[in-house]
Structure to design on (886 residues):
């Protein structure tokens, strides 16, 4: 394989980051105040909540399922925790245990989803749709007001700073993404996970415990939604009942921009991070350009559409490049005479 | 030369009456009496000129020429993977050729669309019958063109006409039964009846139809074909069974390695001559496999003992012993229970009774992952659906079963992985641009090499290979069989099935014949005889079991 082909393939496989770079350079020229250190940190900080949902949704898409309930878990997990700490059992739980309870709640909801979907064979769309509505309804019922103030430690992830320069949220996002990337790419678990998503039937036949993989996927996504909840609660210093509303669709968009596919088996966390950042940059630049807030949503949708078309093009180009390489190899092989 | 001017078939009512022996319109029936001459009538109904079809990585057809005369029964025969299915796809309008042209009734076409095919009255009865399982037989028969009264479906009329057609076709099927209640064999005949009497096709393509027919249905099938032939229809019969071809065809075209080798009249042709044409000089190459690896009747070391395996309706009281280094072939027609048996040994499907001993230890195997732990690995019959993970790279596919070998504390060591992958690619001769290529983009043969490579890398005790040579080209087949013989069987015991007997005769030490879920005969290598094994597969030879 030639060096040129290798570079071409590398760029194609990381197309989302090429898009991020192009979008960044374009805006650096066109949009005032875009390419400043402050604005970059601002973009990353504001994408942090969405990044967690994108990763959660991406992990579920990789395994070949979908999860609509993430945005409700985002509100439900911190909501129930704060009710517990403030109203039901005041004084029992410290802020650190509250963080753990929040994560636990998210993971348990994911576990419930996963068990029903993989063992009882409930359709993932219907299962998570019911959770989306039910959890949101419970939040609206139980948290009719904002709960505030939050303990400082609990809010640290959302509003704290590391070295007085970098928001803790950004650091957390990067650490989590890199961790997941590593696990999926370099561990045996990751390989089995990707295989299950790519072809669950074949993976089952080849000896992978596929239903366990699916349950783990939902637990992880519930966990990530709870982290997103921590970030959201920390940022606004309170828990309210409308947190996360409408975010799950953009989470799908971000994950798909980042290389995930609705058919499963595709995508990497690093790509999804690119997808989440691209989403954040789009809304940031539109705001800076003074586009009407009402129009931002539609423009975001249009740009996502464009990016998905580019992604189809990428898949086409990639398979053509490899096809040509294969033909070349076949010709070489035949030149050598009988290969057996 | 003009075709006698008898077109189409008589009205359904008349057909029904005729079948029942009532002469409604005597003149018409007398008129078609002389057509019983079976000679082709000189004019080409369908011509293919230099048709080539290239798929990514493989050339499926290469400059194929075919000429089918009006009113003849034309056979197309070739081994598995010779290119028959691609050819069928092209003449039925489902696959577009890469180059070449087609002439249908004198009209030149670069390629044929499904709509063209319909207009030209070309009908196909596919290998896998497509019957809608929730619809009644009558609905399936008239699908797309129901008898109507005003805007509504005229149900009584539909059932009446369906009954007439089935009776005429000689099928004893209730028109009100659901599609799912029919056996595969009945479904095939139903679709044939539809092509003949509902669509009134002039060119009927039968794709490996006889392969899935039951014994009784086969007679109905050939009677029906004979009648269609008398009516002047053109029939193209695709098969890999020489008997079928010689029984009904006027002429036969032999396809080998994607080329049309020869078209010859069937009269005076016998099975041996035809087989020689089909196989070509490939025989030598195939026999090399055996010659190169002297059989070592494994001394004593039993790797798998299957005892009393039973599942109601699938297989019954199956018992055999597999030694290390031995290759056992499971021969049996479709529906004989071979896939179900292998799947239940591998823990993929359940069983009602039976015990398993692996390397002398009695154990339970309740899931594929447990089977893997115990050293049993299964190669699925359906490569695309159950074997390959198409979206992952060749590398990721190859190591999927041997992750523990290339990892430390569940961290994958890329160096060990890369060396294992390149070793496998070399050993199995996988043609791929790079190990990073998506496995789904490889050709059929290379996909299969990837799956076989994957399971072999794991180094199990027992290989259960379900149709490892299905749908791949000859070179790939040769290479896979050789690897099974030299590599897989060197360290383990192998059970293998195949759609044809050829492969089994080549590599097996022993062949067990399954018929309707029972082992009815057993042949040692020394007593291999294609004819006798074939008869046993049809259930005509029994009591060979000691």
């Amino acid at each position: 394989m030639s060096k040129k082909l290798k570079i071409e393939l590398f760029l194609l496989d990381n197309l989302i980051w090429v898009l991020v770079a192009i979008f960044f350079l374009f805006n650096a020229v066109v949009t005032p105040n875009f390419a400043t250190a402050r604005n970059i940190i601002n973009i990353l900080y504001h994408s942090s909540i969405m990044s967690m949902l994108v990763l959660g949704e991406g992990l579920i898409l990789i395994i070949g399922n979908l999860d609509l309930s993430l945005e409700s878990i985002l509100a439900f997990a911190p909501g129930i925790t704060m009710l517990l700490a403030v109203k039901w059992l005041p004084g029992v739980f410290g802020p650190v245990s509250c963080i753990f309870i929040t994560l636990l709640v998210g993971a348990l909801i994911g576990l419930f989803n996963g068990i029903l979907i993989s063992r009882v064979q409930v359709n993932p769309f219907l299962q998570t749709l019911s959770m989306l509505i039910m959890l949101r309804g419970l939040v609206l019922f139980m948290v009719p007001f904002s709960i505030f103030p939050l303990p400082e430690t609990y809010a640290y992830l959302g509003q704290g700073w590391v070295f007085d320069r970098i928001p803790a949220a950004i650091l957390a996002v990067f650490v989590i993404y890199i961790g997941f990337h590593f696990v999926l790419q370099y561990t045996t678990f990751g390989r089995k996970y990707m295989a299950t998503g790519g072809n669950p039937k074949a993976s089952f036949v080849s000896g992978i415990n596929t239903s366990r993989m699916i349950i783990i996927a939902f637990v992880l996504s519930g966990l990530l939604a709870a982290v997103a909840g921590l970030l959201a609660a920390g940022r606004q210093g309170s828990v309210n009942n409308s947190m996360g509303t409408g975010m799950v669709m953009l989470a799908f968009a971000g994950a798909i921009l980042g290389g995930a596919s609705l058919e499963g088996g595709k995508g990497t966390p690093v790509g999804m991070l690119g997808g989440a950042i691209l989403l954040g940059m789009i809304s940031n630049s539109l705001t800076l350009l003074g586009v009407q807030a009402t129009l931002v949503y539609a423009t975001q949708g249009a740009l996502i559409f464009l990016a998905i078309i580019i992604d189809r093009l990428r898949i086409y180009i990639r398979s053509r490049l490899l096809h040509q390489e294969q033909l070349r190899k076949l010709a070489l092989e035949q030149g050598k005479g009988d290969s057996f | 030369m003009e075709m006698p001017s008898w077109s189409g078939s008589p009205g359904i009512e008349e057909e029904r009456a005729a079948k029942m022996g009532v002469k409604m319109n005597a003149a018409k029936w007398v008129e078609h009496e002389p057509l019983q001459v079976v000679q082709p009538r000189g004019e080409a109904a369908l011509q293919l000129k230099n048709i080539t079809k290239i798929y990514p990585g493989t050339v499926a057809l290469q400059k194929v020429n075919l000429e089918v005369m009006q009113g003849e029964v034309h056979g197309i025969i070739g081994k598995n993977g010779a290119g028959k299915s691609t050819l069928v796809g092209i003449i039925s309008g489902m696959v577009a050729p890469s180059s070449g042209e087609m002439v249908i009734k004198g009209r030149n076409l670069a390629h044929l669309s499904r709509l063209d095919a319909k207009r030209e009255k070309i009908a196909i009865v596919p290998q896998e019958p497509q019957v809608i399982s929730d619809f009644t037989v009558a609905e399936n028969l008239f699908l797309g063109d129901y008898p109507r009264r005003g805007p509504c479906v005229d149900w009584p009329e539909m059932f009446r006409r369906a009954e007439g057609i089935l009776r005429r076709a000689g099928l004893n099927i209730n028109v009100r039964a659901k599609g799912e209640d029919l056996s595969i064999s009945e479904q095939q005949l139903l679709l044939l009846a539809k092509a003949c009497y509902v669509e009134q096709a002039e060119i009927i393509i039968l794709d490996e139809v006889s392969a899935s027919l039951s014994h009784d249905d086969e007679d109905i099938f050939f009677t029906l074909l004979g009648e269609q032939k008398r009516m002047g229809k053109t029939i193209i019969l695709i098969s890999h069974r020489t008997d079928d071809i010689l029984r009904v065809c006027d002429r036969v075209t032999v396809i080998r390695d994607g080329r049309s080798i020869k078209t010859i009249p069937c009269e005076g042709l016998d099975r041996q001559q035809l087989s020689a044409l089909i196989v070509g000089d490939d025989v030598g190459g195939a026999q090399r496999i055996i010659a190169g690896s002297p059989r070592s009747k494994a001394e004593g070391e039993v790797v798998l003992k299957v005892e009393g395996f039973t599942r109601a309706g699938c297989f019954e009281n199956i018992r055999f012993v597999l030694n290390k280094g031995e290759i056992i072939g499971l021969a049996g027609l479709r529906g004989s229970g071979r896939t179900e048996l292998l799947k239940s040994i591998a823990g993929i499907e359940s069983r009602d009774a039976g015990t398993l001993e692996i390397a002398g230890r009695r154990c339970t195997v309740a899931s594929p992952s447990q089977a893997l732990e115990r050293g049993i690995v299964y190669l699925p019959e359906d490569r695309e659906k159950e074997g390959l993970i198409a979206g992952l790279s060749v590398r990721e596919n190859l190591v999927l079963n041997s992750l523990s070998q290339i990892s430390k504390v569940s961290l994958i060591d890329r160096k060990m992985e890369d060396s294992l992958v390149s070793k496998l690619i070399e050993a199995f001769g996988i043609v791929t641009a790079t190990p990073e290529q998506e496995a789904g983009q490889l050709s059929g043969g290379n996909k299969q090499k990837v799956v076989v490579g994957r399971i072999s890398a794991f180094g199990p005790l027992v290989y259960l290979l379900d149709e490892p040579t299905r749908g791949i080209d000859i070179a790939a087949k040769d290479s896979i069989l050789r690897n099974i013989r030299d590599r897989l069987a060197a360290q383990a015991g192998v059970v293998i099935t195949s759609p044809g007997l050829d492969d089994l005769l080549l590599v097996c030490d022993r062949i067990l014949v399954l018929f309707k879920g029972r082992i009815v005969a057993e042949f040692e290598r020394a007593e291999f005889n294609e004819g006798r094994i074939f008869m046993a597969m049809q259930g005509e030879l029994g009591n060979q079991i000691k």
About this structure: Chain B has 20 helices and 24 strands.
